[in-house]
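Instructor's aside before we start: the two examples that follow are unrelated to each other. I chose them only because their records fit on one page, so don't look for a connection. First example below.
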Amino acid sequence: IRYTQSNVHDFAWFADKTFKVLKGQVDLANSKRRVTSWVMFTPRNEIFWKDAIEYVNDATYYYSLWNGDYPYNNVTAVDGTISAGGGMEYPNITVIGNASSAHELEVVIVHEVGHNWFYGQLGTNERVHGWMDEGMNTLNEIRYVQTKYPDNTALSDMVLGGKFHFNDLNHHDLADLSYRTIAGMGEDQPIETHSVEFSQINYGVIMYQKTGLVFFYLKDYLGEDLFDECMKM
């Protein structure tokens, strides 16, 4: 079997004889070109993965709307427990680690599919300028959740079931509070920091969350139309 794909700088291949496979399609926001979507998952994780085609399709649609159309003909998410952290991205395909809920799975899939734009198309150097990949992708992750689930209470749901009365705190607040905590402790680092120079906690909080917040605020300042015009590839 021979697979070909132009304009990719990395690849991955996954196989499991127990995989269940779902196939779908999504029409891109700008060109209306149709992309084939796939999810592959093991039977034990079917409870969370049964609606994963929706997550892949919505990620591809919204990222195309905001950043320019997805350039490839297929987009795939694979259930895999050997992934690095929550997931690991490659052009056209991403492998996703274990999730504790369907919503958590959706957020991870959306984030990892989103890497097809910055890491994938632009080929940004994540070791030197990590914010250009993870941070910009976190912006879109926050925007996705706030767009699709405007009434979400993601942070409140995480804080011991609301026992501390952190009510109505959403996905955006999760990033905001994470950064404010680090800044309040005097442990903040510049966004433009080499990956190896980040402290362990700041690799996630600064590179991902702080960058995402900065550009989310820029979007609010410029307005969505101008911001989207600036961000399209």
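Example two begins here.
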Amino acid sequence: LTVTLQIGPLTAAVEQMGLVASVSFPEDGGNLGPLNLGFGFKPPKGVALSINSGPVKGGGYLFFDPDQAMYAGAVQLSIKALSLSAVGVVTARLPDGSDGFSMLVMITAEFPPIQLGFGFSLIGIGGLVGIHRGMEQDVLADRLREGRLGSILFPRDVVANVHTIIDDIRAVFPAQRDRYVFGPMVKVGWGANSLLEIDVAVLLSVPAPITIAILGRVRAALPTKDDPVIDLRLEVLGLIDLGR
């Protein structure tokens, strides 16, 4: 059963909760003659919340995967011209099946332009932190060739695309004991109404062997990015592997 509740500007939803039936044939009989029938509560697979109240808009989604002992979710909030997004993954079991945890959190913020000079302006900042998480260079290169760096560099509509984003970042930054990854990201615009947008992230994987990944994305949309006639995009990836 999936239940949705709406109260004014607030909407909440509980996804896939219900009952689990169990049937057995005990030697001494059950509650239905030779048959024993029981029921248990099935906790919800996901919970979602959204708000749309004038200048404040946003929502969040949290889900649990019991097979992988994984909690994951996303939240997005807009307050007038300020937009905040966050995506997170927490697992309670390491890939080898041993007890432990790993965590990956990515947060971004976009805001009105802050002038930097020469027509450039700062329009977004963000960061990524991974605990007991590695960084797969080959998978990152594959995501570049597939045009899917957007799951890492300022992802759009994180709540609606949460499953795709989670799958991508889990593949690029897999759980790995005693490895850590972190780094900042920035979004820069150039020209009127940010005619040219440049996203850059520098990600560091430690300890030794230390790996540095430099991710970049450039977009030029003419005449406007909301209704472009020409839409040019470029994605770049640089890798520095100090262990090699």
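The radius of gyration is 23 Å.
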